[in-house]
Amino acid sequence: MFVPAGLSRLVVLGFAFGLSAGLGGCATVIPLPSFIAKEDITGSIRPISPLSPSLDAEDWRRAKGAMSVALDPQGNGMPVAWDNPKSGAKGVFRPVGEAKPVDDKVCRSFIADLAGSLPDQSVQGTACRDKSGDWALGQVSPWKKA
Questions:
Q1: How many CB atoms lie within 10 A of CB 112?
Q2: Mind listing the pLDDT tens digit for each residue in 57-86?
Q3: Quick check: helix, strand or coil at residue 65?
Q4: Which helix (H) or strand (E) holds 62?
Q5: Is the N end or the C end of the chain the one with fewer CB atoms within 10 Å?
Q6: Is residue 22 a part of any domain in this protein?
Q7: Which residue range(s) make up the domain with 111?
Q8: DSSP labels for 108-131?
Q9: H/E segment holding residue 10
Q10: How many domains is the chain partitioned into structurally?
């Protein structure tokens, strides 16, 4: 290796090392489309409440609480009302029939009436309570009063 006059071999090696370390961090990033995760866009928005798309999150929270009380197999079997003064939404859950065990869950049918700021409607469905005590709605469909 040729060393210019007045420079020591150590200084030249230090310079070469520093230059290579500094340039080693330079890189060009080219995104490859096949490796970029794409969001699945379906054009549909999942409603907050499986009971009705008209319910907002707080309406559904209050409705679900009333549903839990109304459908409790140890309860009195009477209708349980709920309301949300902020949105004006309200409703009533009426248990139908007795609770029945289904696949390690307790299930009960109901009719729910929605009103107030919501479009007046009645729906029928079934909800099941798992071992943790959480109720989940099964299939819900419109119900017409006789």
A1: 25
A2: 999 999 999 999 999 999 899 999 999 999
A3: helix
A4: helix 57-71
A5: C
A6: no
A7: 57-142
A8: EEEEEEEEETSPPEEEEEEEEE-T
A9: helix 9-24
A10: 1
